[in-house]
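Sequence in, structure out. Go.
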Amino acid sequence: MSAIVHNRVRELRLELGWTQQQLGEAVGVSRQSINSIERGRYVPSLPLALAIARVFGHPADDVFSLEVDP
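Output:
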């Protein structure tokens, strides 16, 4: 069984008109971390995912979704 985490971080960040740097500062990580999350190269920890969702004002499962292959 494999799992893939998808996210809407870039989409929601652009809706706010924020840069990756601004989002990183809001949640306490680097711009590079935000870039890696947006590109799907890095899956954030649960606390970071929750912080990102809180900044966007969305439930975490609206920002991040899990696709599981049987």
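Check: The chain is about 55% helix and 15% strand. Helices lie at 9-16, 20-27, 31-38, 46-56, 60-63.
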